[in-house]
Amino acid sequence: MAGTTLSRPAFYQYFTDLHDLIISLLRDIETIMHQTASPWIDGEGETIAALWESNRAVVELCVQHGHIIRAIVEAAPLDERLEQAWKSFMQRWDDAVEARIVAQQKKGLIPPCDARRIANALNSLDVNLVVAAFGRDPHDDPRKVLETMHRVWSRTLYGQPPHASTAKKKRTP
Question: How many CB atoms lie within 10 A of CB 131?
């Protein structure tokens, strides 16, 4: 309370307890994350470029909110309400990624695979990556985290290096 301009009664006007505050923060993060990840999730533009932009936006958000995400990840197994909020958050991400994978499989952009398991694996890897990179100070280099995340996603989904067209041009004499 000391770090805010709110009195204790004012705080409880907005939140029933600390858990309610944390769940509200998680909802806010999710809303922003879905908006910023929309290039790939919504299928806007060239596939690899859209994936890069979505990954970049997620990393940027996680740089800002890594401490909160880490606190939620670590506290969720100890609190039933928080655990349910975290599971719902992750399930909605899995739903969005699965839907994009299925849509791109229908277009022949992604080879046949278990879209749900791939979505879950990619999202789980991202959580571990961003919590390790941005959940404590000092933070890792966001560019390196982005490059790692993008490499994993692009190779897993499309079976190619993240910048295949650029790599081919550099090799051509």
Answer: 19
* Among the listed residues 77, 79, 63, the one whose alpha carbon sits nearest the alpha carbon of residue 21: 79
167 Cβ contact partners less than 8 Å away, ≥ 6 residues apart: 161
Counting Cα atoms < 13 Å in the Cβ hemisphere of 161 gives: 6
| Cα(105)–Cα(74) distance, integer angstroms | 35
pTM: 0.84
Share of the chain above pLDDT 70, in %: 84
Average pLDDT of the residues of the chain: 88
Cβ atoms of 58 and 35 closer than 8 Å: no
User: For residue 7, what are its two tokens?
Assistant: 């009195």
Q: Which domains does the chain have, with CATH numbers?
A: 14-160 (1.10.357.10)
Sign of CA dihedral 9, 5, 30, 131: negative
Q: Are 117 and 98 in contact (CB under 8 A)?
A: no
